[in-house]
Design brief:
Blueprint (H helix, E strand, L loop, with lengths): L10 H25 L1 H20 L38 H10 L15 H11 L5 H4 L16 H13 L3 H4 L38 H10 L14 H13 L14 E6 L19 E4 L1 E2 L9 E8 L3 E9 L14 E7 L20 E7 L5 E4 L4 E3 L21 E6 L6 E2 L8 E7 L2 E9 L16 E8 L11 E2 L3 E5 L1
Helix pairs in contact: 2-4, 3-4, 6-9, 8-9
Length: about 500
């Protein structure tokens, strides 16, 4: 037997070995945790009943309190049928498939990406608990992972062949000849279980639920989306599948973008100047902007997916400036459905993991909402001279109803403890001011209020103390109203 001695000159190699041992021990500890199924399920159950129950329901049947407002409907976990998996069609997903879905969320739906909220172990525990809802996991094995072959060159020939394949497979029957027939069949085709299905625009890479990279789309084609009208194309040759992938990618007019604000931190900047409500005021020059992801509560064409937020404060007041793209302004002078925006604050929690449901709070966890509408006082600039189109009437032209009867402000303060519990604050407590302005295809809206008030239903702003806040937009051109809107998840605000 030969013994190898480590010389002083090979100290670097020795340290590499030590690191490998440390990494191995760390991984062993993780595997031990993940192997303790009972502990994982218990932990996952606690997380599920805190964060998932509102949509998927206590019994996992997809009938949570929020489900009645959502489209597409939340998954019925009892069926053991999952759209997103790397295994053969109609087979159970692997643990890593469930993990990926929870981590990344589902674009175009109300299912948020939990990867920037939960730890790796927490996501694994949720996946383990979700499996307890269906007997399939105790009776079947997930099957093997379907292989994704090496991608051939993305070239004109492959795209041309893919276009032919798209027509031969009659994909246009659902998606349209150019892949642009979003919503054409929505309300007429059903998923397994009777829920209606929404047909997404194939030109929007950001709406590919299982990912828009070549391997992602290839995997969707070979496995299908179980429980939906989207079949698996196992019978195609490898080259035909890649040609179809390349043709679909050639249609992209909107690319998949990286998630905004992954650390979920927003800062309010200190200023010495007086805060005014003008959206184009110089006080906003140089103030940090934060990009917020939005998702529609109900799937729709061309959703607004990004919102820019700024915040400033002085000794007395705090203000927020929201800005978003909107090609057509919908105000009270000419439209029945108004453009709207809202900022929602958690009243008693400052930690996302302890916060209320981001869909208007929950029982014993109230939220304070600042709600703006594009009423008759908002400035809408039209034409090259940029003259504002304004009206002094406070009557809505269609309904004849008064808008914001409490105050001359375009903003009202609301409180909520979950669906069906909205209450408008009394006149004396309506202290938020607001103003909106539409110019060059963008809305800019400013909210302002004193940092401290005497009402226990108002959010208080203290230097250094974090505040949970979320955002919502209503697009009048899409006939948005009430629960039909775009929403964000919780973010954390800190006053610098």
């Amino acid at each position: 037997m030969c013994l190898s001695l480590v010389s002083p000159s090979s100290g670097g190699e020795s340290r590499k070995v030590e690191k490998m041992i440390e990494a191995s021990e760390s991984q062993t500890g993780k595997e031990s945790l993940l192997g303790n199924s009972g502990a994982l399920v218990k932990r996952g159950k606690a997380l599920y009943h805190k964060f998932c129950i509102h949509c998927h329901g206590a019994k996992g049947n997809g009938r949570g309190k929020a489900s009645y407002y959502l489209f597409p409907k939340p998954r019925n976990l009892n069926l053991g049928i999952f759209k997103f998996h790397s295994t053969r069609t109609n087979a159970l997903p692997l643990n890593e498939d469930l993990y990926q879905t929870i981590q990344n969320g589902i674009p175009g739906t109300a299912m948020p990406a939990w990867g920037d909220i939960f730890s790796e172990e927490e996501i694994h525990s949720l996946a383990e608990f979700i499996k307890t809802f269906s007997r399939r996991f105790s009776m079947e094995s997930p099957d093997h992972k379907m292989p994704v072959s090496l991608e051939p060159p993305f070239d004109k020939l492959s795209i041309a062949n893919g276009r032919i394949m798209y027509r031969q497979l009659r994909c246009g029957g659902c998606h349209g000849n150019e892949g642009d027939s979003e919503d054409r069949l929505s309300g007429s085709i059903q998923e397994f279980g009777g829920n209606l299905s929404f047909v997404y625009d194939l030109r929007r890479a950001d709406q590919y639920k299982a990912g828009a990279t070549g391997p992602d789309i290839y995997r969707t084609l070979i496995t299908g989306l179980d429980g939906s009208p989207m079949n698996a194309y196992e019978y195609l040759s490898d080259g035909e599948r890649w040609d179809l992938v390349h043709y679909l990618q050639s249609l992209f007019v909107i690319q998949a973008s990286k998630p905004a604000l992954t650390d979920r931190q927003i800062y309010s900047q200190t200023i010495e100047k007086e805060i005014d409500l003008k959206p184009d005021s110089p006080i906003w020059n140089g103030v940090a902007s934060f990009e917020i992801n939005l998702t529609p509560v109900r799937a729709r064409k061309n959703p607004i997916t990004r919102l820019t937020v700024q915040s400033v404060h002085n000794d007395k007041e705090i203000a927020f400036r929201l800005e978003w793209e909107d090609p057509k302004p919908n105000g009270a002078v000419n439209d029945t459905y108004l453009d709207q925006s809202a900022v929602q604050f958690a009243l008693n929690q400052d930690n996302i993991l302890e916060g209320p449901f981001f869909g208007m709070g929950e029982r014993n966890k109230p939220v304070n909402i600042w709600h703006w509408r594009a009423d008759v006082r908002q400035r809408i600039y039209n034409g090259e001279n940029l003259k504002p189109n304004r009206s002094h009437s406070i009557l809505h032209p269609s309904s004849g109803l008064l808008l914001n009867p409490f105050t001359e402000s375009s903003v009202e303060e609301i409180n909520s403890e979950g669906f069906g519990s909205l209450s408008i604050q009394p006149v004396e407590d309506q202290q938020v001011k607001g103003m909106g302005q539409w110019k060059n295809g963008r809305w800019s809206v400013v909210f302002s209020r004193d940092k401290k008030t005497t009402s226990r239903w108002d959010i208080k702003f203290l230097n250094g103390k974090p505040v949970l806040l979320a955002f919502a937009l209503w697009d009048g051109d899409n006939k948005d109203k009430n629960a039909n809107k775009m929403v964000s998840f919780w973010n954390i605000l800190t006053l610098k």
